User: Which sequence fits this backbone?
């Protein structure tokens, strides 16, 4: 199932709904807002950019974070094993 989000388009000057599953990159802009990049099938490795007024943090909440073994160890500390003899 696709994830859709409403954003404020700079080019169109109104709110639009985009499919986040099609976004390949989100880059914050110095002047504010973000540039969203979509794959351009007409060019090899090509991208189409789309400027929005929405803040980078809006998109950051949808990003997945890489988890390291250290992150897992901090989150789930190992339980000390007790020696049992029968």
Assistant:
């Amino acid at each position: 199932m696709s994830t859709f989000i409403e954003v404020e388009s700079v080019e169109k000057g109104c709110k639009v709904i985009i499919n986040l599953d099609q976004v390949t990159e989100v880059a914050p802009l110095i002047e504010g807002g973000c540039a969203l990049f979509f794959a351009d099938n007409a060019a090899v490795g090509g991208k189409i950019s789309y400027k929005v007024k929405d803040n980078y943090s809006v998109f950051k909440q949808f990003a997945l974070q890489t988890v390291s073994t250290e992150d897992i160890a901090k989150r789930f500390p190992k339980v000390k094993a007790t020696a049992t003899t029968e």
User: Anything to note?
Assistant: Strands lie at 4-8, 15-19, 23-28, 34-40, 46-52.
